[in-house]
Amino acid sequence: MKLWGGRFTKETNQLVHNFNASLSFDQKFYDQDIRGSIAHVTMLAKQGILTDTERDEIIAGLKGILADIENGTLAFDAESEDIHSFVEAHLIERIGDTGKKLHTGRSRNDQVALDMKLYTRDEIVELNQLLKTLMEELYKIISTNTETFMPGFTHLQKAQPVSLSHHLSAYFEMFKRDRSRLCDIYERMNYCPLGSGALAGTTYPLDRAYTASLLDFAGPTLNSMDSVSDRDYIIELLSALSTVMMHLSRFCEEIIIWNTNEYRFVDIDDAYSTGSSIMPQKKNPDIAELIRGKTGRVYGALISILTTMKGLPLAYNKDMQEDKEFTFDAIDTVKGCIALFTGMLSTMKFNNEVMEASAKNGFTNATDAADYLVNHGVPFRDAHGIIGQLVLTCIDKDCSLDELPLSEYQAICPAFGEDIYEAISMKTCVEKRNTIGAPGVQAMKEVIECYREYLDTPNVCDTKQN
Ligand code: ARG
Questions:
Q1: Cβ-proximal residues to 38 (8 Å cutoff; 6+ apart), any chain
Q2: Which tens digit of pLDDT belongs to each residue from 373-408?
Q3: What digits encode the pLDDT tens for the residues 53-111?
Q4: How far apart are CA 179 and CA 134, in angstroms?
Q5: CATH number of 363-455
Q6: Pairing between strand 266-267 and 349-350?
Q7: Domain map of the chain by residue range?
Q8: What is 109-199+222-356's CATH number, 3.40.50.300, 1.10.555.10, 1.20.120.140, 1.20.200.10?
Q9: Fewer C-beta neighbours within 10 Å, C or N terminus of the chain?
Q10: Residue 4: pLDDT above 80?
């Protein structure tokens, strides 16, 4: 059934119908559409625009439609233009003329604006939860590996020793920001557009604040033209999701490197790896690669909506129907990636000895050796030169600084004593770095306490979870 046949004398061209229709994808928010309609008629009855009996009939009809969609007895047919027409047509079919009153004081423009907001709002709550689950897994590894030493890198060259806790806590920080961005978006978008009509409000005495409160919004939006054409929250969400993917992708890149035969810092579990059809020895990190790859897809969604919106005059334009498919795809992609990543991380084995040996073999304690000389009165620039020479000696002898005999040290600089070995041990190198945010065990313990408290304190989205 069409909602707008009255002023037309010809049938719609079939290709036009197909091109114009959105039911194939906006059926995704049938639940939100029906929830919005129930709130709308509840408000209409409170305002005396519908009788209580009409309200009850409509709500019962809507609930029946919802149940039938969910139990599979009501299928989405290709005839309806969109989810809004679909629900209304079926309501009229089921309850007759009363059903025709549902759309009083409403347009599909404010209706779709509401549905999309309700949908993304629900998804934000879920995304926040998925990130939290990931962070709980990360927390387990961080809190138990403060003394698992590994090389820290710059330019992908070994730089200074850190701990596994410290390295992974960098990602914990990133995900903390991701969750806080989701909460910001939630709060900023949480105003109800319903009652804005097509663009200029309505002449009915609607109680928009009441509808907003029924749907758990902070209040009604304050400009009807903006309400029907605002898609900022989608742009913000896709931007936040792009950042989530960027973080996951960087993490995946590190895991892929760590999982190589050359590094062997980690072993990805068999359940999260795949094989080769030709090379029997292969065990590939496909999941990490796919997450890295899907990042492009989410960025694409962001660029797509930004481009769609850039030339649109106020108020509603059909271009905005293009906000949905990419957004849905991006949300589903990110949800899948976070869940898969969490599984991969929690089953992954860290090869602590390999990481520690790698930190020792890469002269990551060279800065500490220079600092040792500084503490013995040698100016830093000279100390830098002296340690540089010692590194060359080690390369020549194929040994680490820890393995070089004291005589070699003293041959270059008499300031060296037996305590140099203690000063450049992995444990000392890491432990001495105890300013907050540094890898020192004590510093990390304080950070880990903050993380526990962070995870135990619900954020805005946690409190909205059903
Ligand atoms: N399917 C449309 C969308 O997604 C719903 C709003 C239609 N409004 C209109 N005036 N044609 O944007």
A1: 59, 62, 63
A2: 999 999 999 999 999 999 999 999 999 999 999 999
A3: 999 999 999 999 999 999 999 999 889 999 999 999 999 999 999 999 999 999 999 99
A4: 11
A5: 1.10.40.30
A6: antiparallel
A7: 14-104, 109-199+222-356, 363-455
A8: 1.20.200.10
A9: C
A10: no
Distance CA 162, CA 198 (A): 59
Q: 317: Cβ below 6 Å to ligand 1? A: no
Best mutation site among 22, 194, 308 for ligand 1 pocket (most ligand atoms within 8 Å of CB): 22
**Which superfamily is assigned to 14-104 in CATH?**
Fumarase/aspartase (N-terminal domain) (1.10.275.10)
Which residue shows structure tokens 């806590």? 169
Q: Which residues contact 242 (CB under 8 A, 6 or more apart)?
A: 295, 298, 299, 302
List, by residue number, the catalytic residues: 155, 276
Continuous segment of H or E residues that includes residue 69: helix 52-70
Minimal CA–CA distance to 115: which of 254, 17, 231?
A: 231
Residues 191 and 258: their CA atoms lie apart, in Å, by 46
